[in-house]
Design brief:
Number of domains: 2
Number of strands: 14
Largest sheet: 8 strands, parallel
CATH superfamily of the largest domain: Enolase-like C-terminal domain
Helix content: 25-40%
Shape: globular
Order of helices and strands: EEEHHHHHEEHEHEHEEHEHHEHEEE
CATH topology of the largest domain: TIM Barrel
Number of helices: 12
CATH class of the largest domain: Alpha Beta
């Protein structure tokens, strides 16, 4: 038991982006983060989340969900009971990661040790090219041609022109794409030859979540990855045979606890793991780094799109992420 009652503090913070970030769902100029901090007088733990509008979340709704658990935190809510107290989503992610952090602090060990994982090693992330005109996407891709892997954000009409423009601008780069649920089954079939010609390595969520049955028996030479269709372990069984991979993003699935369960189930079913992220600070990325050794592709470039990251934070050397020395997240002290 904690020597003093544990208490929860919920804080909002807005971070300016280095440049506007567009997706099929709109344009953002800031990253809106919420930090959950649990403290008991001797130890503390933090977790950061970014509300996902796609799942009906806002900063107001996520902050309200967290503030609504303050009494439960004082009464002893813990990481295990949290999984039943909140559904998958950003609020549970922030609180789950805060529990992992404070539990490790109390045990004077790392979160990696507490979770039975290896120490965090340097990780290479893909870099996201925001949804834009073919010309603008090609220009941004060319400026980042030295990065090992580029991810293209797509959104429906004009997508093949976007992919072709980027491929022409960066003929040697590795490319993956995220259709963001914007295609129909007919478009996916029609686009496939051009995507093969452009050497696309992975297609993320081509159809709307819930339309996955159309992929059963569908021949797709380019592997497909479920993103919005996969939020919990309960979703995975129905995705096998329709996708080759699943995207695990902490704000989507609700934290490290569910992410570890998803990764284990994906491995049992032979599904590849893509580790995703949202545009936030190093505090939101740090817990996800623990899952990186289990992932085939890592998409944790969020802090690279900020005008400035929090300090101290993770170190980004090009596309390589390294954990900082000393106390940040997940280390005792």
């Amino acid at each position: 038991m904690a020597p003093h009652p544990q208490r929860l503090t919920v804080t909002r913070r807005s971070w300016a982006l280095a440049r506007p970030m567009a997706t099929a769902r709109g344009v953002r100029t800031t990253a809106e983060t919420i930090i959950a901090e649990i403290a008991d007088g001797d130890s503390r733990g933090r977790g950061e989340c970014v509300p996902l509008e796609r799942f009906g979340e806002s900063t107001d709704s996520v902050a309200a969900a967290l503030n609504g658990l303050k009494d439960a935190i004082v009464s002893g809510l813990n990481r295990e009971t949290l999984q039943r107290a909140l559904p998958p989503g950003a609020a549970r992610n922030a609180l789950d990661c805060a529990f992992w952090d404070i539990d490790a602090n109390r045990a004077w060990c790392t979160v990696a040790d507490l979770a039975g994982l290896g120490a965090t090693m340097p990780v290479t992330t893909a870099f996201t090219i925001a949804h834009d005109t073919p010309e603008q996407m090609a220009e941004l891709a060319a400026a980042n041609r030295a990065r090992p892997l580029l991810k293209l954000e797509l959104g429906g009409d004009g997508d093949i022109e976007r992919v072709q423009a980027v491929r022409q601008a960066v003929p040697a780069s590795r490319l993956i794409i995220d259709a963001n649920e914007s295609w129909t089954e007919a478009q996916l079939r029609a686009f496939m030859p051009a995507l093969i010609e452009c050497r696309i390595e992975l297609i993320e969520q081509p159809l709307p979540a819930g339309a996955d049955d159309a992929l059963a028996g569908f021949a797709h030479p380019v592997p497909l990855c479920a993103d919005e269709s996969c939020r919990s372990v309960a979703d995975i069984e129905r995705l096998a045979g329709k996708y080759e991979a699943i995207n695990i993003t902490f704000d989507k699935v609700g934290g490290l606890t569910e992410a570890l369960a998803l990764a284990a189930q994906a491995k049992r079913l032979g599904l590849r793991i893509i580790l995703g992220g949202t545009i936030g600070t190093s505090l939101g990325v740090a817990p996800a780094l623990l899952l990186a050794p289990k992932a085939e592709i890592v998409l944790l470039d969020g802090p690279l799109h900020l005008a400035a990251d929090r300090f101290p934070g993770l170190r980004y050397d090009g596309s390589t992420i390294t954990a900082p020395e000393g106390r940040f997240w997940g280390q005792p002290g």
